[in-house]
Amino acid sequence: MLEDMISRRSFVRNVALAGGAFAAGIGKTQARRQRGGDRLHLACNQYPWTTFYGRENRDFNADLDKGLGEVAASRMDGYEPLANSPREVETLGPLLKKHGLEMRSLYVNSILHERDKAEASIEAVLAIARRAKEIGTEIIVTNPSPIRWGGPQNKDDAQLRVQAASLEKLGRRLREMGLILSYHNHDIELRNAAREFHHMMVGTDPGLVTLCLDAHWIYRGAGNSQVALFDVMKLYGQRITELHLRQSRDGVWTETFGDGDIDYEAVAKHLLEINVRPHLVLEQAVETGSPKTMPPVEAFQKSSQYAREIFAAFA
Q1: How far apart (Å, rounded) are the C-alpha atoms in residues 235 and 39?
Q2: What is the CATH number of domain 24-314?
Q3: Are the beta carbons of 271 and 238 closer than 8 angstroms?
């Protein structure tokens, strides 16, 4: 049991290491942002567009050229795709250039908790990452074992140890390529005292595994708790390299990113206070119960405007 316990001394050391990792890994992005002037770089993830299109019985992925045109029209600077193969990244490259969109980050799924599958999954992620780096990607976001998303399964301690070791190995391989690994979770990792989420943090080297803070999944996974969200930020704030932005009202995702259950002004304030300026990615998706009053482009235009106001000091 002692090997699973973290002393105060080791915790402080990890926080210090995380701060160094963040400064080294994001320095390049910050420098490029400064060269670009005062405009805040704001990206959006692929997932929310699929949900908006889906409610109109449209398929976002069926015509990426048209879809990315709407992403650009919604005043986004960047696009974070969910990539399943290097070929998908190769297809995206010319389209992103055509529509003036950057791909500073890329989201990829992985299976890291099963020892017999982890190595193959790591190699698959690395193959995608190599192609992504060629078109400007700096951050690889991964959620281990997405096949459980929403299911009843829970990982046991042995699987959590395997997953943490595999995640760290992936982070080391990506760092050797000059890329940053950013761990992402959904609400399922917050079950059982958030043992999976916390072990991916405390069981890995902060210099190799950073955090993609999806504020709303933390909020929802903790039973709609801002207390839990801000505790996570206090514990692991220096490891945040990317921030996913989604809002809800009374627990249901809103149509646009704006005022609601989560105090994003306080989120921005806290990050500025600890001198952390992560890559900002809108993920304002819709779900059952979400309002339906406007088309996707209008919704994302309103969302991007609000995000730029809240995070203006990050520019």
Answers
A1: 30
A2: 3.20.20.150
A3: no
Tens digit of pLDDT at every position of the chain (315 positions): 334 433 333 333 444 444 444 444 444 444 444 434 568 999 999 999 999 999 999 999 999 999 999 999 999 999 999 999 999 999 999 999 999 999 999 999 999 999 999 999 999 999 999 999 999 999 999 999 766 667 788 999 999 999 999 999 999 999 999 999 999 999 999 999 999 999 999 999 999 999 999 999 999 999 999 999 999 999 999 999 999 999 999 999 999 999 999 999 999 999 999 999 999 999 999 999 999 999 999 999 999 999 999 999 998
Q: What is each CA distance from 264 to 6, 199, 216, 291, in whole angstroms?
A: 30, 26, 10, 20
Q: Tell me the two tokens of residue 171.
A: 């982070």
Q: Which two tokens stand for residue 226?
A: 């801002």
CB atoms within 10 A of CB 148: 18
Question: What does DSSP say about strands 210-214 and 180-183: parallel, antiparallel, or unpaired?
Answer: parallel
Question: Could you give the residue ranges of the DSSP H alpha helices within the chain?
Answer: 8-35, 46-54, 64-73, 86-98, 115-134, 157-176, 191-202, 215-221, 226-236, 264-273, 296-310
Q: CB under 8 Å to 192, separation ≥6 — which residues?
A: 154
Q: So where are the chain's domains?
A: 24-314
The 3-state secondary structure of 267-290, one letter per residue: HHHHHHHCCCCCEEEECCCCCCCC
Cα 149 from chain centre: 16
Task: Please answer whether residues 109 and 143 qualify as being in contact, where contact means their C-beta atoms are separated by less than 8 angstroms.
Answer: yes
Look-up: residue for tokens 């969200």? 229
DSSP 127: H
The closest alpha carbon to 258, from 230, 282, 233, 232, belongs to 282
Look up the pTM and report it: 0.89
> Which residues, including other chains, have CB under 8 Å from residue 277's CB and lie 6 or more apart?
26, 30, 271, 314
Q: Are 257 and 303 in contact (CB under 8 A)?
A: yes
